[in-house]
C-alpha cells in the first residue's frame, strides 16, 4: 500500500516492488513457517482496511509502505512448527508477495481436498464459502419454500448463498450488475443497473414479498428491499460493498419498515464461525464432487496484475470470485 485511500481505490494507491526474498528456512527455535504463495484472494473488505480509522476495528488498518495481506493458498516451504511440514498445502492470512514468513501458523487451515481446484480455497472452500454457508444457515435459519433475495449474487459469496438456498428448497432471486452476470440458474434474476425502479423490480420478482434478504451491497438496494420484505422477514447484513468507496455513506430512507414489518436485521461476521470450518469443508467438498454446486472464478496471473484485480471488485468488472494466481505450484 502506497498511501491511505480516499474515494475510489486506484492503481496509484498501490505499488509492486522487488525486494530481496527472506531466508526460506525458518531460524532455529522458531515456531513459524515460510510459505510460497500460490493464490491470493481479492476481497472487498480490503478497501476498508486502506482507510485510516480513528476507532479500532475488528481488524487493523493496513499501513502505507507495508505489504498488503489477505487470504491465500500456500505451500509450506519450511517449518519450525510440529503441526506443519514442508510440502503441506494450507490456506489462511498471508502477504501479497511470493514468499511469506508466518509467525502464527496456528491461524492456518490445512487443505484436506487437494483433488479439487486449489484456487477454490480462496473462494467456495475458503472464507467466502464459509461466509455464505454460516451467514445463510446460522442467521436466518431458512426453511423450504421461503422467498430469498440475494444482492451481489454473482460474487464470491452471493453465488454460493444462492446455490445453498436452492438446495434448501427456497425460491431464489439474485441481482447483479450485468446481463451476463445475472444468469445464475436461480428462479429469477435481474440486472440492477438496467432497472429504473428497484422497488418495482423486486415487487415484480416477489409479488408475495421476501422472507430472507442476504445483504451484500447496501445503499439503494437495501432501501428498495425494506418495503418488499414480508412481515417478520429476516435480513442477513453480510456486507455493503456499494458504500466502501464513498467518503459520505448513503442514508437509507426506508428503515422505519423494520418497525412496521417486525423485521430482524442481523449483522454477521465470518470470523465468529471459523470453529466450524472443517465440518463446512467436508460438506461443501461433497457438494462440489456430486455436482450439486459449481463455482465461477475470475483469475488474473501474477502479482503485477493484483492491484488492478482488486479494483475490479469495485468497478463491477469481476465476474465471480476475483483472485490472483501467484505461482501454479
Ligand atoms: P463480490 O465478489 O460480490 O464483489 C465484487 C462485486 O460487487 C462486483 O463485481 C460488483 O458486481 C459488486 N459491486 C461493486 N460495487 C458495487 C456497488 N456500488 N453496488 C452494487 N454492487 C457492487 O464480493 P464478495 O462476494 O467477496 O463479498 C460480498 C459482500 O460480502 C461484500 O459486501 C463483502 O464485504 C461482504 N463480506 C462479508 C463477510 C462477513 O463476514 N460479514 C465476509 C466476506 C465478505 P455487480 O456487477 O453485480 O455490481
Automatic annotation (TrEMBL):
Residues 156-278 form the Alcohol dehydrogenase-like C-terminal domain. The keyword Oxidoreductase applies. Residues 1-110 form the Oxidoreductase N-terminal domain. The keyword Oxidoreductase applies. One of its GO terms (molecular function) is 2-alkenal reductase [NAD(P)H] activity. Transmembrane segments: none annotated. Keywords: Oxidoreductase. Homodimer. This is Enoyl reductase (ER) domain-containing protein. It comes from Oryza nivara (Indian wild rice). The lineage of its organism: Eukaryota, Viridiplantae, Streptophyta, Embryophyta, Tracheophyta. The chain holds residues 118 to 446 of 453 of the full protein.
Amino acid at each position: 500500500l502506497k498511501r491511505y485511500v480516499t474515494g475510489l481505490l486506484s492503481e496509484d494507491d498501490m505499488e509492486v516492488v522487488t525486494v530481496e526474498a527472506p531466508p526460506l528456512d525458518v531460524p532455529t527455535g522458531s515456531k513459524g513457517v515460510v510459505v510460497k504463495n500460490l493464490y491470493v484472494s481479492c476481497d472487498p473488505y480490503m478497501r476498508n482496511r486502506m482507510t485510516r480509522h480513528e476507532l479500532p476495528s475488528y481488524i487493523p488498518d493496513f499501513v502505507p509502505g507495508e505489504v498488503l495481506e489477505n487470504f491465500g493458498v500456500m505451500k509450506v516451504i519450511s517449518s519450525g512448527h510440529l503441526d506443519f511440514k514442508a510440502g503441506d498445502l494450507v490456506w489462511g492470512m498471508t502477504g501479497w508477495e511470493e514468499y511469506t514468513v508466518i509467525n502464527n501458523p496456528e491461524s492456518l487451515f490445512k487443505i484436506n481436498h487437494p483433488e479439487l481446484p486449489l484456487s477454490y480455497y480462496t473462494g467456495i472452500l475458503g472464507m467466502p464459502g464459509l461466509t455464505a454457508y454460516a451467514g445463510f444457515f446460522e442467521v436466518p435459519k431458512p426453511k423450504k419454500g421461503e422467498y430469498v433475495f440475494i444482492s451481489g449474487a454473482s460474487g464470491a459469496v452471493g453465488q454460493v448463498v444462492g446455490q445453498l438456498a436452492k438446495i434448501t428448497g427456497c425460491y431464489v432471486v439474485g441481482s447483479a450488475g450485468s446481463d451476463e452476470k445475472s444468469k445464475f440458474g436461480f428462479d429469477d434474476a435481474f440486472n440492477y443497473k438496467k432497472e429504473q425502479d428497484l422497488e418495482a423490480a423486486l415487487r415484480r420478482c416477489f409479488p408475495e414479498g421476501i422472507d430472507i434478504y442476504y445483504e451484500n451491497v447496501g445503499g439503494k438496494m437495501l432501501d428498495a428491499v425494506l418495503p418488499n420484505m414480508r412481515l417478520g422477514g429476516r435480513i442477513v447484513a453480510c456486507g455493503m460493498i456499494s458504500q466502501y468507496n464513498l467518503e459520505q455513506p448513503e442514508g437509507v430512507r426506508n428503515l422505519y419498515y423494520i418497525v412496521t414489518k417486525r423485521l430482524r436485521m442481523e449483522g454477521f461476521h465470518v470470523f465468529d464461525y471459523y470453529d466450524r470450518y472443517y465440518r463446512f469443508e467436508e460438506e461443501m467438498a461433497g457438494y462440489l464432487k456430486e455436482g450439486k454446486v459449481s463455482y465461477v472464478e475470475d483469475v488474473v496471473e501474477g502479482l503485477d496484475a493484483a492491484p488492478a484485480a482488486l479494483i475490479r471488485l469495485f468497478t463491477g468488472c469481476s465476474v465471480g470470485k476475483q483472485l490472483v494466481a501467484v505461482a501454479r505450484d
